[in-house]
Description:
The protein is α/β, with parallel strands linked by helices. The protein has a single domain (2-485), classed as Alkaline Phosphatase, subunit A, CATH 3.40.720. Helices cover 32% and strands 16% of the residues. Strands 1, 4, 5, 6, 7, 8, 11, 12 and 15 form a 9-stranded mixed sheet that branches. A two-stranded antiparallel sheet has the order 2-3. The chain has a two-stranded antiparallel sheet with strand order 9-10. Helix 2 runs parallel beside helix 9, helix 10 packs antiparallel against helix 12 (349-373) and helix 11 packs parallel to helix 12. The relative contact order is 0.22. The model is unreliable at 1-50 (pLDDT under 50).
Amino acid sequence: MSRNLNREAIMALTRRSLFSRGAAGLGAAAFAAIDSSKKSPLANTTDESTSHLPHHDAKAQRAIYLFMSGAPSQMDLWDHKPQMADWFDKDLPESIRNGQRLTTMTSGQARFPIAPSIYQFSPHGQRGTMVSELLPHMAKQVDQIALVRSMYTEAINHDPAITYICTGDQLPGKASLGSWLSYGLGTENENLPAFMVMTASWTGRQQAQALYNRLWGSGFLPSKYQGVALRSRGDKVLFLSNPKGIDTDARRRMLDTLGSLNQLNLQQVGDPEINARIAQYEMAFRMQTSVPELADLSDEPQHVLDLYGTEVLVPGTFANSCIMARRMAERGVRFTQIFHRGWDQHGALPKDLPKQCKDVDQPSAGLLTDLKQRGMLDDTLVVWGGEFGRTAYCQGKLTKTNYGRDHHPKCFSIWMAGGGVRGGVVHGETDEFSYNITKDPVHIHDLNATILHLLGIDHRRFTYPFQGLDQRLTGVEPASVVNELLS
């Protein structure tokens, strides 16, 4: 009934109020946050597909997604292919490529010479999982993680591929994973948003793909469910500080007056987004205290800081972002996403990849250790991975010590750990060139279905009506939870 009333109210909007509503949405992005209610905001909906969240007992109460933007090279890090050494500078067999699509960056090459990894792999953990020498800290964590070597996607270029894995569609406009979780599960802390984002600095290839806020946007969901981005310089959240000459009491009076005006507007036009706007302003006011406290690491013991490495106190680094993510998890933030760029090694991979790995290896391992020591890993899901993989053949000139790799959507590696994940698992296999999946393929929709499942959500029943379709994060094609990864 309430949904029908809201729809009728929106239909009754005047042309002037419609345009003012759209303009107000632009400003709301700076203060995007979720409702202060600690229970699911779907609890009172009449939509059976989302009225009983969580749908089942959740193994994870929150999630941290470490996103390696640019696509890490799986055969140099996680997918050991020693047979490739015998193929150095030989052409990739056509029987392996099998006419598969190429990017414009290598489609014009006269040949596709195999570039074996120059990095040593060694066995680790109880099952002898092979891990590259570039990841010495994460190698010690293999019994904590489930490694998936058989991920795949249809997207072959960065922007549609990242948009695809983050929102479930290659085209912009859909809601991101974090927004879906914010919408469905709410927050455990009324003073912080349910969904927070950080974009970390990097030391590898500096020409990196741009990141657009649609990757943490709410799409067709109400704007209060989009991610709030933390910055490394100035205000942690844009426009969070009071302007000069405005103190806390003055800000409070301004918000009270603005709230009264918005209530009058709500009574006149009945637009539910007005309530969302009021809630966002109130959240921003509370964040003026909660965010500085969150970012203050002075209370962290030295032995904890040491887990994350030497850059942990440098704002904006991946190490700093990881300890911030742990602090957010402690404070009830439902979903935290860290984007780390620079993984797009089309050339000079031996120069840039080690730098990227050094950025993230110890902080990622430190995050898992820190969460475990605090008893939080059991109900905190951690995911690490990029948007696709990289080719076995070289892009550009190949030598014994230097090579580059192009985009490869047919197979790549990710790992998961924590809440409900079976540690020590290696799932999926690829051929001797890490080019095609030979066992247990996992589509990116399957990955998102599994993430939702661990957080207590059935992806098939988790929908939102938009443009005549019950939208889902996992799309309309079949997707499956990867049960082999579950404890």
